[in-house]
Design a protein that fits this description.
Elements: H1 3-14, H2 18-24, E1 38-39, E2 45-46, E3 50-51, E4 73-80, E5 83-85, E6 89-98, E7 104-112, E8 118-122, E9 125-128, E10 131-133, E11 137-139, E12 146-151, E13 170-172, E14 178-189, E15 192-200, E16 205-207, E17 232-236, E18 239-240, E19 246-253, E20 258-268, E21 274-282, E22 289-293, E23 306-310, E24 317-319, E25 330-335, E26 342-350, E27 355-364, E28 371-380
Parallel strand pairs: 5-28
Antiparallel strand pairs: 1-19, 2-14, 3-14, 4-6, 6-26, 7-10, 7-11, 7-27, 8-26, 9-10, 12-25, 13-19, 14-15, 15-16, 17-23, 18-20, 19-20, 20-21, 21-22, 22-25, 23-24, 27-28
Bound molecules: calcium ion (CA) (2 copies).
The site of one calcium ion has 8 residues, from loops.
Length: 381
């Protein structure tokens, strides 16, 4: 199939209303139709395998001793109207939000200028006409988008179908500790679309590609903020493609939906014992990440093994218990995460004396710099 006809197939997929895709989750929950699969005819371009570099020491960021770090709490404050006549009222809304991953306590206070006394508050108490504060609050930390499960999904994953059954495969001759970067049709992972994927000789993928400095023979845990990040690992262990195919890739279509399929054909490093497995990545606008295994090659080699996935920051992820062989073909599902906790309150202020005035809100949290926000309010005659 030509590239043009692939585009036609993608356009056909695009005809499905977005809501239907969201509700049905597209191909992720469809029963795979093995009989209709054929190459989508997409030419996958690759860069040469990159030899692993030694890991560079992390740049040690340091702050002056005693200096407090910036607060993860952001404060917004707005007054409506921003100009009032004497005896007129303005309502000011203050919102604090935790943008950090950790829970934090926040104590806020709002002070008004002498020409703009506060007459009422909601969600806060007036201590004097010039000082209001809400109860001390505990703000939950943010939860980023990321994988929430790696689990069997019987009837909804393709399972192992040898890519050699199809024409047009792109061969990626990986040796030991090498990664190839492949330009691919855009696929969604944790809410982001990627047009490139790094394929490690050690059984994992890096959406967005690898700079070549992260190929790790010894699997890390998942998640882990340490490099490599954004790992999708069908079978992360010390493998070596030398003398084997290495990896191959193709885009298969059932005529409507398309999948990027990557197959590893390598040996356990230092042995002649093969491991053959695949990642199926839907390129249909919704996350669809499947792992498939040629189970007669899947066995315990005595080497560390990790099966799972993490997000781009290495802060959320899932894995089978370390060393656990995949019990079946698997699917990685993700969720969108959630923002940090918020605190909001309003105060009402009254123009008393003509001239420039202001409301100043300060948010204090333990062990970080306080945050100060100033909102001018002009009092006219
Ligand atoms: Ca990581
Ligand atoms: Ca290796």
């Amino acid at each position: 199939m030509s590239r043009t006809s692939w585009k036609a197939a993608a356009a056909a997929a695009g005809l499905v209303p977005p809501m239907l895709v969201a509700v049905c989750a597209g191909p992720a929950q469809a029963a795979p139709d093995h009989g209709r699969l054929r190459p989508a005819g997409i030419h996958l371009t690759t860069s040469a395998p990159v030899a692993a570099k030694s890991r560079s020491a992390a740049a040690a960021g340091s702050t002056a001793a005693g200096a407090l770090p910036a607060s993860p709490v952001t404060v917004t404050q707005a007054c409506d109207p921003a100009t009032v006549a004497v005896k007129q009222l303005t309502t000011c809304t203050v919102t604090a939000e935790n943008t950090g991953a950790a829970e934090i306590t926040a104590e806020l206070g709002t002070v008004s200028s002498v020409n703009l006394p506060m007459t009422a508050a909601s969600g806060a108490s007036l201590f004097t006409p010039f000082l209001a504060y809400p109860p001390k609050a505990t703000l939950a930390g943010t939860r980023p988008a990321g994988p929430s499960s790696v689990a069997p999904d019987p009837g909804h994953v393709f399972g192992y179908i040898p890519l050699t059954a199809f024409g047009g495969n792109t061969i990626l001759p990986l040796g030991d500790e090498q990664t190839a970067n492949l330009d691919v049709p855009g696929f969604v992972y944790n809410g982001k679309t990627y047009g490139k994927v790094g394929i490690s000789s050690n059984g994992y993928l890096l959406p967005g590609g690898s700079g070549g400095d992260a190929d790790q023979a010894r699997p890390g845990t998942l998640p882990d903020p340490a490099a490599p990040n954004n790992v999708i690992a069908p079978f992360w262990t010390d493998l070596d493609g030398t003398g084997m195919t290495g990896a191959m890739a193709n885009v298969l279509t059932d005529g409507v939906w398309n999948w990027l399929v990557i197959e590893w054909q390598e040996n356990v490093a230092g042995t002649g014992t093969p491991r053959v497995f695949q990642a199926w990545i839907g390129v249909n606008g919704v996350q669809d990440v499947q792992f498939a295994y040629k189970f007669d090659t899947i066995a315990d080699s005595g080497r560390p093994l990790v099966v799972g996935a993490e997000n781009a920051e290495g802060t959320r992820g899932v894995r089978l218990p370390e060393g656990t062989l995949p019990p079946s073909d698997l699917r990685v599902t993700s969720d969108a995460g959630q923002p940090g906790g918020k605190l909001s309150y309003t105060v009402t202020a009254k123009g008393l004396v003509r001239g420039p005035g202001q409301l100043v809100t300060v948010a204090k949290s333990p062990d970080v710099k306080p945050v100060t926000v100033t909102t001018p309010v002009t009092v006219t005659r």
